[in-house]
Amino acid sequence: MTTAVVFAYHDVGVRGLSVLLDQAVDVRLVVTHEDDPAETLWFESVADLARAHGLPVVTPPRRGLPPLAERIGLLAPDLVFSFYYRHLLPSGLLAVPRYGAYNMHGSLLPRYRGRAPVNWAILNGEHETGASLHVMTAAPDAGDLVDQMAVPILLDDTARDVMRKVSCAAEIVLARVLPALREGRVSRQPLDLARGSYFGRRRAEDGRIDWRQPARRVHDLVRAVAPPYPGAFADLRVGRLAVHRTRLDAVPARHRAPALYAEEDRLYADCGDACRLEVLQCLLAGERYDARQHRSRWGGRVLPLGDAPA
Prior knowledge:
Layout: E1 3-8, H1 10-22, E2 26-31, H2 46-52, E3 57-58, H3 65-75, E4 79-83, H4 91-94, E5 101-105, E6 113-114, H5 117-123, E7 128-135, E8 145-152, H6 159-182, E9 198-199, H7 215-224, E10 232-236, E11 239-252, E12 259-263, E13 266-270, E14 275-284, E15 287-288, H8 291-298, E16 303-304
Parallel strand pairs: 1-2, 1-4, 2-3, 4-5, 6-9
Antiparallel strand pairs: 5-7, 7-8, 10-11, 11-14, 12-13, 12-16, 13-14, 14-15
Helix pairs in contact: 1-6, 5-7
């Protein structure tokens, strides 16, 4: 029987572990993360799935990974997998499995190596992304490609929408390549890293909207960081405007400078390219805000959209 050690978190981790269990891989250890109480936990739990199947589970801190390599060496797994695990694995651990160590990454490698690949792809206006299984090396997301599958990014898809698609693609990729992995005969294709790029961690502050940018760019930011991610926002004279959902509008902007205003029963934001967005969901100073609230508070007035309070 093929044996494996699995490092996993998030929905991709759940789907990856599910494939191994479905194909009767002997998973000897599951390594995952302690949930962060400060994080919005909208995804499934790898730890819950593993415990439901009677698998041993550990949640070591980053500094606990090198000592863990010795324990994994004693388990002598045929394969090691990383499915959306958030830390790089020590290079000594990568040499342990007989048939190799493999990572599932949420992009079409070599594009969007690094952190938050789905969010970055949406922010940059991409029309597709995907899931890629590749050989793990000391450098992140740089090892030979084993298999990948593309998924579409639709114009109004949020990061959560696309993550669901990527999770499904990851499951399909792993399921179709696992028989070959178990026999140690999988084909590998070197990644041309010059054709891709590396992206770093995103912070909550990166969701600040610059309304001087084109409407499409603002729309892409909003959907790239929409809840359950930290969200896009702008600080106005009247409080923080948290923008959760927008839609590109075919009607040109009504004002020369970026502005927020109501028109009939809808709320609009004019952007820097003389185009406008319909603001579908937002909060102002922590309270739900729409065209009705705008008229109630300001009548027909227009709120200037700056990127900092005056």
